[in-house]
Amino acid sequence: MSIRTEGWKIRCVVYDCDGVLFDSLEANGRLYNDLSARLGKAPLSEEQLRYVHSHTVFESIRCIAGEDEGLEKKGLELLKQIDLSEYIKYLKMEPNLLQALSALKERGTLRAVNTNRTTSMKYIMERFNLWPYFDMVVTALDVKNPKPHPESIEKIVSALNLSKNEIVFIGDSQVDKQTAESAGVRFIAYKNKEISNGVLINDHLELLELVGNGKSS
To answer: What is the pLDDT of residues 133-142, one digit of tens each?
Structure first.
């Protein structure tokens, strides 16, 4: 057990989607590069790719369009014509995810998703048959203020009748870390030492040791 998790009493594990549930870099890269090409823009830079990987689709299109509001509006219209389900096949589920989720469920630990994805999330849940593994899914469409604003975490806390010290949020980006900090909940970094507050996991099964049996760690 990590000394930094001693005394944690976790009733709910909240997961980011991209980079935590799935390696989605290729999928996101394909989608936004296709969209960028349709807008007559160059392929995404590494910095842009990192940005779209952790921000909402609206923020990502704004990033691609730059200061051109007309181009941004065109991008939003083009997005409606794109079959987002075509890109989901490029997602790669993280190793041991389902095994860890099943173990948490057996222990009575609640499981939720907190993502800045929008309409594409329902396709992901259906394609990978994830609905039975989660008690709640919050996307950018479910809140007025997406991550890193605390609204999404607060929505989960309220809906599942939890206190903030009973939640841990697992993320892989600065946006995720900022979300946890702004909401006042515990944070575990996934495969990203740079954003770790001292608790880092590189495999989903490691989480089972940190949160114990769902009552005490």
So the answer is: 999 999 999 9
Considering only CA atoms, which of 121, 122, 118, 187 is closest in space to residue 150?
A: 187
The pair phi, psi for residue 88, each rounded to 5°, is -65, -25
Q: Identify the H or E element spanning 112.
A: strand 110-114
Architecture of domain 3-23+92-210: 3-Layer(aba) Sandwich (3.40)
| 24-64 pLDDT, tens digit each | 989 989 999 999 999 999 999 999 988 887 788 889 999 99
CB 118 within 8 A of CB 57: yes
For the chain, the structural domain boundaries read 3-23+92-210, 25-88
Tokens standing for residue 128: 């990978």
Interatomic CA distance for residues 116 and 29, integer angstroms: 16
Nearest to 141 by CA among 124, 121, 123: 121
Phi, psi of 43 (to 5 degrees): -55, 155
C-alpha 56/C-alpha 28 separation (Å) is 11
The DSSP-derived string for 3-28 is: GGGTT---SEEEE-SBTTTEE-HHHH
Give bridge partners of residue 93 from the DSSP assignment: 22
The answer to whether residues 69 and 87 touch, using CB atoms and an 8 Å cutoff, is no
